[in-house]
Amino acid sequence: MIIGVCRIVLSIPESFSLKDKRRVKRSIVEKVRNKFNVSIAEIEAQDNIRELILGISCISTDSNQIYRVLSDVIKLVEKEKDSFIVDYEINIL
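Given the sequence above, the corresponding structure tokens read:
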């Protein structure tokens, strides 16, 4: 069993409240969950209204498959118009 973990740091420049941030987060999380068989959640900076840090994980027997899935998740998140990716990292455990 191989575990892949991805951490994505997003900036939400048009967020002026936690409600705005939650709307953006909900949109991203639903799109990722509907398209990929991964776990996703906000993992840090819950009180920062303009920063969203997501943790994503998936399990497989093939590390190349994990890397491909997590890369596709990043590509999907990059298409979001209300936020942009500041940084991300993928770790295969």
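The beta strands are 2-11, 39-44, 51-60, 84-92. Try to locate this feature in the token string yourself.
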